[in-house]
Design brief:
The complex is a heterodimer. Chain A is mainly alpha-helical. Chain A has twelve helices and no strands. Chain A has one domain: MetI-like (MetI-like fold, Orthogonal Bundle), CATH 1.10.3720. In chain A, helix 8 crosses helix 9. The longest helix of chain A is centred in the first third of the chain and has 35 residues. By secondary structure, chain B is mainly α. Chain B has a single domain, classed as MetI-like (MetI-like fold, Orthogonal Bundle), CATH 1.10.3720.10. In chain B, helix 5 crosses helix 11. Chain B starts with a helix and ends with a helix.
């Protein structure tokens, strides 16, 4: 039996839709009003100013590089470990799960100050190189709750033991098994985690601002202090980046079961 | 299988009576070479997660002479901390309620309310993006909308409604409005599967037994949804409680110290002329405890929700 759409349903959709869409529409409109005083109702000069500035390219590249590096390190850490634990030490699976969920309990501000305190006056806080790696390390930790589960689920869905034994009997070494057998079977899970990691790192502010590093969010924050229309243009660009990474995630997710992924703030 | 093979290799490679071979044989049974495989991960976790968390806890619970004390935690009750903690708890509760209600109505509309499939999939896709659209850009979006020169502010002004100077985004209320934005999609994403789990047969059975709409919700649907709802609300609370970037962009460091605990923690640590650094640790540790309690509620009610899903 199929019932008709409730009239309330449209009302609630409208209500929540207003709340969710209005700020975005307003931001878009505002970002196009840069020349309204000159009588031009729609202008892209805020976008032109934003994209034309040197800071835009450097901050965007900084966050992009950090996101890619975070994804690479996360993959190198998690894939072999999750594979090894599933194969040889399944009793560690709950520990692994707990450790990768723990970052949810530790607010980012607290994590950063813990790190700064314990590594005070070491390479990690004394040099710009060190501070950068401190940031990357924090990013890897912060995104664990979102990167680990898709990888674990993908590993769980394939028969790790049989695949390993088959490869071993054909003479493959551990590296070859991981790269040529396991990874091709779980890359959807890895990509799934990678897109959400990308979205989180591209919008991350807390770590980079406390450590004084030039991330994309820091650029947006600074723009808001002394510009009028440019911050709105930056917010639209940022929304576009989030939208693209989540859209890619959802396209890939559709190939598997639909999973719910939510980010950190 | 592989473990015993490795040990046999060791035994033959060394003299079977050598100290090393004896140590290998004396080891507890769980200690195998397999641990080497998980060493990099656990080393990383120890350096970047456990050690910093541990140092915060130790700093909060000891004094300068490394004695175990509760003084620092008790000092959290001092005036400033009480206001920032209390304000953050209020903000989290209010936005959990506001985001929870709006999110639940939206989730209801696309599931039980039977909106067309294309609406449902667009709402879910949009929520996936909106849940990750937080922090600085979210604050900027609200400035563009209802800031002093924002678009909506201007539109309202043109029809004779002046929200300024009475209103400010850089206030308790402003933070609540912005946080509600990212709470709504969170709730939709978590509650939609639970609402999908409500079976048509249960409703029909209730109808046949003469139950009213209200009775069906109170006696059938709500008890089933309650664990999922409770777990999502706990997550929303933790989400708002630990948030930093959105509030920092809205109110800045100064006023923020009194309104948002994460900003107060940052101020404590950034300030070099601290009289008592342990107070900073205590504030940070207090945050961890608060979030840990909510996550515990989340996990506990999640398990109860799973029980329903498995039995249905």
């Amino acid at each position: 039996m199929t019932r008709k759409t409730s009239p309330f349903a449209w009302a609630w959709l409208l209500l929540a839709g207003f709340y969710l869409l209005l700020p975005l529409i307003a931001t878009l409109v505002f970002s196009l009003q840069a020349d309204i005083r000159q009588g031009i109702p729609i202008s892209f000069s805020a976008y032109a100013n934003v994209i034309g500035s040197n800071d835009f390219a450097s901050h965007l590249a900084f966050s992009f590089g950090a996101a890619i590096l975070t994804i690479i390190i996360t993959t190198l850490l998690l894939v072999p470990t999750a594979y090894w634990v599933q194969l040889k030490m399944p009793f560690l699976l709950p520990v692994l799960e707990f450790m990768t969920l723990l970052p949810i309990v530790i607010p980012v501000v607290v994590l950063v100050f813990g790190l700064i305190t314990i590594y005070n006056r070491t390479f990690l806080t004394n040099s710009s190189q060190g501070v950068y790696w401190l940031m990357i390390g924090s990013y890897v930790v912060i995104t664990f709750p979102y990167s680990y589960r898709p990888i674990a689920a993908a590993l769980h869905a394939i028969n790790v033991k049989t695949l390993t034994e088959a490869s071993q009997s054909l003479g493959a070494g551990w590296l070859r098994i991981l790269l040529a057998v396991i990874f091709p079977n779980i890359w959807v899970g890895v990509l799934n985690g990678a897109f959400i990691t990308f979205a989180i790192v591209m919008g991350e502010f807390t770590v980079s601002s406390i450590l004084g590093l030039p991330s994309f969010s820091v650029l947006m924050y600074n723009a808001n202090l002394n510009q009028v229309y440019e911050p709105a243009a930056l917010a639209i660009v940022s929304f576009g980046i989030t939208w693209i990474s989540i859209a890619l995630l959802q396209i890939i997710g559709r190939r598997r079961s639909a999973t719910v992924d939510v980010g950190v703030h | 299988m592989a473990q015993t093979a490795t040990i046999r290799n060791l035994d033959t490679s060394a003299d079977s009576n050598s100290l090393f071979a004896r140590l290998v044989r004396m080891r507890p049974t769980w200690l195998t070479w397999n641990w080497l495989g998980v060493l990099p991960f656990f080393l990383f976790i120890a350096l970047f997660q456990l050690y910093p968390a541990w140092s915060i806890a130790v700093g909060a619970l000891t004094d300068d002479s490394h004695h175990l004390v509760l003084d620092n935690m008790l000092k959290l009750g001092s005036e400033l901390n009480r206001t920032s903690y209390w304000n953050t708890i209020q903000i989290s509760l209010i936005t959990t309620a506001s985001g929870g209600i709006l999110g639940f109505l939206l989730a209801w509309a696309i599931t039980v309310g039977r909106l067309p499939a294309w609406v449902r999939s667009s709402v879910l896709s949009f929520c996936g993006v909106a849940a990750n659209f937080a922090g600085i850009p979210l604050a900027l979006a609200f400035f563009s909308a209802i800031g002093r020169v924002g678009v909506i502010t201007q539109v309202l002004k043109s029809i004779g409604i002046f929200i300024y100077p009475g209103f400010s985004l850089s206030s308790f209320f402003g933070i609540c409005i912005a946080y509600t934005y990212f709470q709504i999609p969170f709730l939709v994403l978590i509650m939609t599967p639970a609402l999908d789990g409500l079976r048509e047969e249960w409703r029909e059975a209730a109808d046949n037994l003469g139950a009213t709409q209200a009775q069906y919700w109170r006696l059938v649907a709500m008890p089933i949804l309650l664990p999922s709802l409770l777990s999502s609300l706990a997550l929303l609370f933790a989400n708002a409680f630990g948030a930093y970037a959105t509030a920092y962009a809205l109110v800045g460091g100064g006023v923020g110290e009194n309104l948002v605990i994460s900003i107060a923690v940052r101020a404590q640590f950034s300030n070099d002329s601290l009289t008592n650094p342990h107070l900073g640790y205590a504030m940070a540790f207090g945050m961890v405890i608060m979030v840990a309690i909510t996550v515990f509620i989340y996990t506990w009610s999640r398990q109860r929700a799973e029980r329903w899903r498995n039995s249905s």
